[in-house]
Amino acid sequence: MVISIEKANDSDNLRLLSDDSGESSKDVSVVRSPRKSPLVLRMIVLAFVMLCGIYISSICLKQLGFNLRPNLSVQVTNKRCPNPSIAHSDLHLLHYPNPLTYTREECECTPVRLFAIFSMQRSGSGWFETLLNNHINISSNGEIFSHKERRNNISSITNTLDKLYNLDWFSSAAKNECTASVGLKWMLNQGVMDNHHDIVDYFNRRGVSAIFLFRRNLLRRMVSVLANLHDRDTKPINGTHMSHVHSKDEASILAQHKPAIDTHSLISELKKTEEMVADALNYFNSTRHTILFYEDIITNQTKVMDVLDFLNVPRRKLVSLQVKIHTNPLSEQIENWNDVYKTLNGTQYETFLNADYRL
Ligand SMILES: *[C@@H]1O[C@H](CO)[C@@H](O)[C@H](O)[C@H]1NC(C)=O
Ligand SMILES: *[C@@H]1O[C@H](CO)[C@@H](O)[C@H](O)[C@H]1NC(C)=O
Ligand SMILES: *[C@@H]1O[C@H](CO)[C@@H](O)[C@H](O)[C@H]1NC(C)=O
Ligand SMILES: *[C@@H]1O[C@H](CO)[C@@H](O)[C@H](O)[C@H]1NC(C)=O
Ligand SMILES: *[C@@H]1O[C@H](CO)[C@@H](O)[C@H](O)[C@H]1NC(C)=O
Ligand SMILES: *[C@@H]1O[C@H](CO)[C@@H](O)[C@H](O)[C@H]1NC(C)=O
Ligand SMILES: *[C@@H]1O[C@H](CO)[C@@H](O)[C@H](O)[C@H]1NC(C)=O
């Protein structure tokens, strides 16, 4: 009995052994040595049988796992919909929501993927989101968590996400029933860092993908933050606060303000921002994610196509109506440029002074 199993799996045994390096080739030569006593030979046969047993049970486990998977997927796939032709490991990314307030009708069997854009204020995420929403199958619902009561505690966060990902969230970004990718824009300081543990759990449990969008030039980001604060206080465009603009004229009005930067706190502020980015990436490392930089996507359309692939929607050209506010060299946009230059010259942030993108 034992021997017959061994024989039947002879080739498997050999394969198993050849997978291991040094040790096993020694074993093989031992088996073939005719001078060894029968006892030693028997021990070796026994060892083979044990190896064989381990091998067989590993195969069995593998098959069991394989059989289990379709049962798991029943929970996420809609029983009435045909199984999508994607890898089993990706099935947990697909959802067939049943919105409470309407039916998805003919798109009932269009699987929906869930995403979140993580970013920081003034990093181009507003522009990026309008770009994504230009896609017929993507619905990104804005800074849902800018309202404090939605991020008070983890249960209000998950309730809000549940509602969004069940396609029950209504915003100007809501598309038709055929939305194939639904998400939101989420600033790191809107409860993400404080609740990262539970949010990562939620993302992994529900198969939510994370898109990180950051700005490489944190000095430019700082100029934008300060200018935006100034605009909120002065409202030069017809008394309205404009975080984003849609014409060159408006952009040039907003760019007229040259903020002065506090050089005493400048380096520590830049450091703090850098650390926050690093922490966020670290926390979300186990989630399905991609990392983007504003400077790359404004100069390289391929980066945007990569995002569409990541979201699994068809590639198409996307446009945003937003116009960039600060297009001049940094030296013309900072009131105390010389002080700022001296503060950063020779530090790790020196490149922020010179790196201007070419549009
Ligand atoms: C998987 O589901 C099928 C029916 O859908 C059932 O017959 C089978 O026993 C299930 N397997 C396990 C391991 O639960
Ligand atoms: C995208 O939306 C269109 C129109 O609603 C729909 O016909 C199409 O099936 C959708 N594509 C995907 C990949 O969901
Ligand atoms: C969470 O916050 C909401 C308000 O946003 C509140 O109604 C609820 O009681 C809070 N839950 C817990 C467990 O603190
Ligand atoms: C201010 O409002 C007027 C009338 O509503 C409009 O014509 C004009 O373009 C606006 N100015 C700017 C800078 O948006
Ligand atoms: C994420 O984890 C992988 C390995 O698990 C590691 O190589 C990588 O450096 C980590 N990335 C971050 C940002 O921590
Ligand atoms: C644009 O991005 C793609 C990948 O997203 C990269 O392969 C390519 O080299 C980039 N092009 C330029 C000019 O940087
Ligand atoms: C920047 O620092 C270098 C030395 O690190 C110095 O030679 C140069 O003059 C400095 N530039 C300015 C504008 O201060």
Brief summary of the model shown:
This protein has about 350 residues and is an alpha/beta fold.
General description of the model:
The protein is built from 15 helices and five strands. It has two domains: 2-76; 95-354, Rossmann fold. It has helices spanning 2-8, 10-19, 22-32, 38-76, 125-133, 154-165, 188-192, 196-206, 218-234, 248-255, 263-283, 294-299, 301-311, 337-344, 351-354, and strands spanning 113-119, 138-140, 181-187, 208-214, 289-293. Helix 1 packs across helix 2 (10-19). Residues 1-33 and 65-76 have low confidence and may be disordered. With 359 residues, it is of the alpha/beta class. A five-stranded parallel β-sheet has the order 2-3-1-4-5, sandwiched between helices.
SSE blueprint and pairings:
Elements lengths: L1 H7 L1 H10 L2 H11 L5 H39 L36 E7 L5 H9 L4 E3 L13 H12 L15 E7 H5 L3 H11 L1 E7 L3 H17 L13 H8 L7 H21 L5 E5 H6 L1 H11 L25 H8 L6 H4 L5
Parallel strand pairs: 1-3, 1-4, 2-3, 4-5
Helix pairs in contact: 1-2
The protein binds 2-acetamido-2-deoxy-beta-D-glucopyranose (7 copies).
The site of one 2-acetamido-2-deoxy-beta-D-glucopyranose (NAG) has 3 residues, from helix 4.
